[in-house]
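Deliverable D5.2: sample structural annotation.
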Amino acid sequence: MHTGSFKLYRKTACSRFRQLTEMDYQRYGGVIQTREGPATFQVGDYLGQDRYGQFPVRRVKVERDYRRVSAVDTDGWADYQPCDYRLAARLSEPLTLPNGQHGEVGDYLVRGRDHQEWIVAGDLFESTYQPLSMSHELCSNSSGQEGRGA
């Protein structure tokens, strides 16, 4: 695998999520087709959306690493602020992850604190992530606990 060196980043843009239901599972067969390839989900996970489409996010990740910052709308969507850090490296050649996600040169391989890896399109990454120093405060929620989502 050819990537640049991993550096520490924080996603600064809010993410938009809604919880996936049994009806979603039946409709999609437990798989969402994303730009990077098929991604599986379970009922109770979250559906995110960005300018490239929709993608599932594990429930535990949203509840641990994000803080809801808006009311839930009539369709179940709300904005969430990321509270964790990620390691990321720019791809210098195409890469396919074991989960089937595929990235092209210039995309980023992102690694969460639980070592889960995913691909983010280069232009999307560069417009929504910022470099982070090790001493930078990550996030605090209303209970004062740092680095946990609500």
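Annotation notes: The first strand starts at residue 7 and ends at 11. Confidence is low (pLDDT under 50) at residues 140-150.
The annotation will be released with the project's public dataset once the embargo ends.
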